[in-house]
Amino acid sequence: MIKKMIASLQSVAGVTDYQIAITEEVRHEAYFVLGKRETVRNTDVTSYAVTVFKKMSKDGKELLGSSTFNVPYTLSQKALAKKIEEALYSASFVENKAYEIPTGDGKKHTFHSPEITDDPWKTIDTVAEIFHGYAKPGKKFNALEIFLIASKVRIINSKGVDYTKNSAVLEVEAIPSFDGHKPEDPVNQKVELYRYFRYREINLDTIRADAQHALEEVEARFNATKIPALGTIDVIIKDEEVISLCNDLISDLSYAGVYNHATDKKIGDVLQTVDKGEKLTIGLDKRYPADKFDGDGVLLTPVTVIKNGKVESYYGGNRFAQYLGVKPTGNLGGLKVALGKTSKEDLFKGPHIEIISLSGIQLDIYSSYIGGEVRLAYYFDGTKKIPVSGFSFSGNLFKTLENIRISQDQYVTTTYVGPKYIRLPSVEVL
Questions:
Q1: How distant is the alpha carbon of residue 313 from its chain centre?
Q2: What's the DSSP call for residue 297?
Q3: Nearest residue to 17 via CA among 72, 65, 75, 58
Q4: In Å, how far are 285, 307, 321, 379 from 279, measured between CA atoms?
Q5: How far is Cα 254 from Cα 146, in angstroms, rounded to an integer?
């Protein structure tokens, strides 16, 4: 199939360069309802995506157009040539400033991450037993979907790139529920939450903790009350919200952001004028051994974007790196944040709100805004902790960053390694 595609691409006049992306995916899926397995599915799918590039010139400027299409496995040579011609025509309307696609050495290179399991169905059953094993009357997982996905991705282009990576992931989608009645309301009530977990290794202790926390959180959501009038208070964000905060802080520092004037921040600019707080160091990294290249065929280079509160470097893929005249780091998928100096015990001292679930943390660097709509949190008044919901918070981003405290505790996901908690001082509760 690959030889057929390359032959067709080379035979069509006007194709300057090309890239072929082949994805092979083997999925084992199991669906559970109220603790019982209802459906299982096993699929093995291979897909082909072809990108054609066309060099052009207009008004004395060199341009490069591109267009991508999917190739059905049963496509004939004649039909494939027609698809290429159609893509070439489409590419003529994409008038990007000219750039070169990545080059390779013409040899095939294969990268592997460790296997998750050699028995997918047994692993899925083990994970399901863990989740359902914590169920109690009124507190359970209404629905549980478990996917074990092994994938092989190969990138080939006309400039000698030929890279393959093999990896696997376990995904769990869970609907924890809690039903009962409150003293003031004898009518039975029920609440549900949605939780998504993704693992690149089978750590049963981590999976157990995730299952327990999901049920604890849905019970807390059931018991949550309206938050009292507080004015300003410290807020503690954790896990995914820490990731979101750090991603947002570096999002406009990409090569594309710089080229398109989406940021006014230059290397050396200070983001944190620290008073009593801690400084952030945020970078992008390769999380697993197979993560050696990106979707353009660029070999990945880890980069520190913010170092001790200052802009250290930009980052990004092939096209915009060439526009800026720098070396591409590649589109790195792993976020790496330096751990802080504050112990969990110290971080949680004094009145605060610990956020469990947000509709999404909101940042605007240019108006110096940070905030979010809170779905579930714990309010600690200095003595007792109570679940609360239905409020929002807001603050001055750069004022807040001056005095943040960063935890020593580590949080690890398939795309992140860094602090589990960050304490944001004196934000307003609305």
A1: 21
A2: S
A3: 65
A4: 19, 8, 28, 26
A5: 35
C-alpha–C-alpha distance, residues 425 and 339, integer Å: 18
Provide the β-strand partners of residue 405.
423
CATH topology of domain 2-223: PmbA/TldD fold (3.30.2290)
pTM for this entry: 0.93
Residue 254, helix vs strand vs coil? strand
Degrees to nearest 5, angle at CA 283 with 25 and 194: 50
Give the N- to C-terminal CA distance of the chain in Å, as an integer.
59
Distance CA 331, CA 130 (A): 35
Quick one: which H or E segment has residue 296? none
Of 328, 345, 365, the closest CA to residue 236 belongs to: 345
CA angle centred on 264, ends 273 and 255, rounded to 5°: 110
Which residue, among 360, 322, 329, 361, has the nearest Cα to 253 in the 3D structure? 329
As a dihedral over the C-alpha atoms of residue 128, residue 134, residue 137, residue 141, rounded to 10 degrees, the angle is: -40
d(CA 128, CA 119): 15
Q: What does the domain layout of the chain look like in residue ranges? A: 2-223, 226-429
430 residues of the chain, pLDDT tens digit each: 899 999 999 999 999 999 999 999 999 999 999 999 999 999 999 999 999 999 999 999 999 999 999 998 888 888 999 999 999 999 999 999 999 999 999 999 999 998 899 999 999 999 999 999 999 999 999 999 999 999 999 999 999 999 999 999 999 999 999 998 776 666 678 899 999 999 999 999 999 999 999 999 999 999 999 998 999 999 999 999 999 999 999 999 999 999 999 999 999 999 998 878 899 999 999 999 999 999 999 999 999 999 999 999 999 999 999 999 999 999 999 999 999 999 999 999 999 999 999 988 999 988 999 999 999 999 999 999 999 999 999 999 999 999 999 999 999 999 999 999 999 999 999 9
Residue whose tokens read 């990945």: 300
Q: Could you give the CA distance from residue 206 to residue 419 in angstroms, rounded to a whole number? A: 16
- How far does CA 384 lie from the centroid of its chain? 34
Q: How many angstroms from the chain centroid is the CA of residue 380?
A: 30
Closest CA to 425 of 283, 311, 278: 278
